[in-house]
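ok new one. same drill as before - structure tokens go in, u give me an amino acid for every spot. 409 of them this time. try not to just spam alanines like last time pls lmao
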């Protein structure tokens, strides 16, 4: 990880903001909770871009009077990220401080003595659109969706420091990473439900760890006693660490990335599970599942597969509207392949992180997979992301994470 270039964190003015007039029909949607205005919906987009070629804060209004507050991005299809759509002029800094304090407050019930890795700012859902901030013990990690946030991160960091303690902060953006304040030894260790995990934000996905799965890992822990568990798309092996802590007899981690497999080994080692009961396979999960013998429909009640539970936590299969149908087909195929390897009394844990695919569509894909394999499923548990990933009502943004645990009958 390298130091952030100074031009990336150059402070920009937050006073005397230009006014952007919003068409009344679109402004009405903003008042209802929509967090974005797209470039094509702004009649005076070019004039605003000429005023703010690098982006920045603007006032928004459907009239001649300045009122609401937004962040303008000249290089994104989302031209405006809405912070407030009232008719009042709100000063930026106090408003930011209020929003950050509110974000921390909603997470206050989390017991930080056993969980000190969590999401502190969840973008649009914390009414701080385009900004994500995670903390891993004493390391703060920013991952904004837009470069326009970067010059204002020192202000955000100052306000966060009044709410939570950290020794270093870093920035991840557009495949690059760098230190904002201080430095930390990487990978760094943090706690999740008293289990220990290592994270390196400069490599891997998201900010280095899937914090959103915390409650779902907990349910796997509760259902793992005495079971032989297959963890597909295992990444850093967190589901398997939870399973071992819950008394799993054996676990197998499958991931196509050899780097992820090494990270999984380290997470098992620091928790005391580096033994012959935990296996690792660097292979495509679809291909690995195909190597397991199928159980015919006629023998579902009399035979069981070698794994008592199969966990499917794949990457998003639909990143755009055009990929929705193929994504649903991929989820159906994946779950069909797994279910064909499970018998009566065994479990399927399956997830989707595709925001474009609704819970109904995903459940429909699983239901079709069950029908195609002659399995009957009972839903034992359903959940999304943890409480540090709140969802803003009326934002138009669907909850992206869907997680279900089924028993095969």
């Amino acid at each position: 990880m390298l130091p952030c270039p100074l031009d990336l964190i150059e402070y920009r003015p937050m006073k005397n903001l230009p006014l952007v007039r919003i068409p009344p029909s679109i402004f009405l949607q903003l008042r209802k909770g929509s967090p974005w205005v797209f470039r094509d919906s702004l009649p005076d987009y070019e004039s605003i871009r000429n005023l703010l070629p690098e982006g920045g804060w603007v006032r928004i209004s459907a009239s001649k009077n300045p009122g609401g507050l937004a962040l303008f991005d000249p290089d994104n299809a989302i031209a405006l990220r809405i912070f407030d759509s009232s008719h009042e002029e709100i000063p930026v800094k106090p408003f930011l401080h209020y929003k950050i304090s509110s974000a921390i407050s909603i997470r206050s019930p989390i017991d930080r003595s056993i969980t000190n890795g969590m999401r502190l700012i969840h973008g649009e859902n914390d009414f701080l659109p385009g900004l994500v901030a995670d903390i891993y013990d004493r390391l703060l990690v920013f991952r904004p969706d837009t470069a326009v946030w970067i010059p204002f991160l020192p202000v955000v960091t100052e306000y966060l420091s009044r709410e939570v303690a950290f020794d270093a902060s870093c920035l991840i953006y557009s495949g690059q990473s760098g230190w904002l304040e201080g430095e930390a030894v990487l990978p760094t260790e943090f706690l999740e439900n008293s289990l220990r995990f290592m994270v390196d934000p400069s490599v891997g996905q998201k900010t280095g760890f899937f914090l959103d799965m915390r409650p779902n890992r907990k349910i796997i822990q509760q259902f793992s006693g005495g079971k032989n568990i297959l963890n597909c798309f295992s990444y850093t092996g967190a589901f398997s660490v939870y399973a071992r802590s819950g008394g799993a007899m054996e676990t197998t981690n499958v991931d196509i990335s050899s780097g992820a497999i090494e990270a999984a080994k380290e997470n098992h080692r620091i928790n005391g599970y580096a033994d012959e009961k935990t296996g690792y396979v660097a292979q495509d999960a679809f291909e690995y599942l195909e190597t397991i013998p199928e159980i015919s429909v006629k023998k579902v009640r009399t035979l069981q597969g070698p794994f008592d539970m199969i966990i499917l936590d794949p990457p998003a299969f639909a990143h755009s509207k055009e990929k929705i149908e193929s994504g649903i087909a991929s989820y159906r195929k994946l779950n069909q392949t797994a279910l064909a390897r499970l018998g009566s009394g065994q479990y399927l844990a399956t997830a989707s992180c595709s925001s474009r695919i609704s819970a109904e569509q995903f459940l429909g894909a699983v239901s079709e997979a069950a029908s195609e394999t002659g399995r009957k499923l009972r839903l034992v548990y359903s959940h999304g992301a943890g409480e540090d990933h709140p969802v803003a009502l009326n934002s138009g943004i669907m909850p992206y994470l869907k997680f279900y645990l089924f028993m095969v009958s």
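The chain has a mean pLDDT of 93. and btw Residues 324-339 form the longest helix (16 residues).
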